[in-house]
Amino acid sequence: MNTPGAAPRPDRGRGAGASRDRVSTPRGLLSAALLASGVLVVVLATTAWAVRVLFSDSVATLQQIGWIPVPLVLTAMLLGLGMVAGGGAIAFRVWAKRLVVGGAALLLVVAVEHLSTRWGWVGGCSDPIRIVHWNAASPKPEAAAVQQVELARREWDILVVSNDATLFGRWFAHRWEDGPGGEAWTVRRAGPFALVTSLPVLESRLAIASRDIWLGVFRVELPIAGGREVVIHALDLPSDPTLPRAALLADLRRRLDDLQLPEPDLVLGDLNLDAGSAALAAAYPDLLSAFEQAGDGYAASYPRNLPLWQTDQTMVAADLPICRYRFIDLGFGTHRAQELSLERSGDARR
Q1: By CB neighbour count within 10 A (0-12 exposed, 13-18 middle, 19+ buried), where does 273 fall?
Q2: Measuring CA to CA, which residue among 165, 162, 121, 125 is closest to residue 145?
Q3: Full residue range of the structural domain in which residue 19 is found
Q4: Do 100 and 141 fall within a single domain?
Q5: In this predicted structure, what is the pLDDT of residue 231?
Q6: C-alpha dist (Å) from residue 120 to 125, 270, 296, 298, 326
Q7: Is residue 106 located within the same domain as residue 133?
Q8: Residue where one domain finishes, among candidates 65, 89, 113
Q9: 349 in a domain, yes or no?
Q10: Which residues of 146-182 are buried (b: 16+ CB within 10 A; e: fewer)?
Q11: Is residue 64 a part of any domain in this protein?
Q12: Domain boundary at 71, 89, 113, which?
């Protein structure tokens, strides 16, 4: 009961009733549907990201989700948040604001967690040794001739090429006798891999040649802190996304143990694995992701014109003085190249 002269108490059910009235209108029903759809899109996108982070490729039935490009997940989350904001503008203003704020915070977490957003790395290299890997994807002879000329113009100390086909065949070998500074270049082949360098090459051989796994082993002497032998594994894995990655990499580990190969200092190649692969970490437990250590720029290599996946990867030994790792666009081919820089003095700048 209201006392005389006092202001009347507000009807507590009036706001809720007004909200129900707004929802019951055609525009309100459309708003509710848009809001619900937006929430569903955000939930699905978040689930895809969470599965990728928590399980990676360790579970065969879930590894397909890991192939969903994170930029696509972020786009879906933005779209979903827009739908939530638009749908809640009419009947669910308070809830819509809370969902948008929470969703925006989650989107920021996804973007930061995703390796490909690590821009502007603050480290640097004072006197780098550059190691470049590129998947040539078996170019035709006429394309290989042009690509050789372009590759020779770039600055690198070691160039490793996967699926080079005719790129470094005998027909073109004479083009690589002298480097830009007049130094002699060595071209070594190991199955589908080629290594070009002016540094001493101590070993090159094809260690594994199977339907699903190709592995070339190179041993090179690097001018790091007076000289250091480095074992490089050039690895190529199949692109079929349905192959269970955990089983494939476990098979690779068994083969490495059976062959009793020395543990590598570098593993690089077109691995056709998702970034942060749990299967790759299990196969090479003593190595670290080069991009996690010194990544600089957008971490995706395929396809070259619009890279969405980090199929090309490099793993490094913890004691290698890595000072920079990035992907570079050579201007041709279907893959971007990956460039690893090591500090010649031996001092890492991580």
Answers
A1: buried
A2: 165
A3: 12-113
A4: no
A5: 98
A6: 14, 25, 6, 10, 11
A7: no
A8: 113
A9: no
A10: ebbeebbeeebbbbbbbbbbbbbeeebeeebeeeeee
A11: yes
A12: 113
Residues 314 and 253 grouped into a single domain: yes
Q: Is there a domain that residue 350 lies in?
A: no
Domain count for the chain, please give it.
2
Instruction: Give me 27's structure tokens.
Output: 């525009």
The single-letter code of the amino acid at 27 is R
Structure confidence at residue 71 as a pLDDT band (50, 70, 90): confident
Span 34-59, pLDDT tens digits: 777 877 887 888 788 777 777 788 88
Say whether both 195 and 62 belong to one domain. no
Q: What is the pTM of this model?
A: 0.80
- Rounded to whole angstroms, the Cα distance separating 328 from 113 reads 22
Sequence letter at residue 16 = A
Q: Is residue 2 part of a domain?
A: no
Question: 251: how many CB neighbours lie within 10 A of its CB?
Answer: 15
User: In whole angstroms, what is the distance from residue 176 CA to residue 128 CA?
Assistant: 22
Please choose, from the candidates 316, 298, 295, 297, the residue with its C-alpha nearest in 3D space to the C-alpha of residue 307: 298
Q: Cα dist. 121→94, 216, 243, 322 in Å?
A: 39, 31, 34, 13
Place of tokens 């078996």: 138
CATH value at residue 246: 3.60.10.10
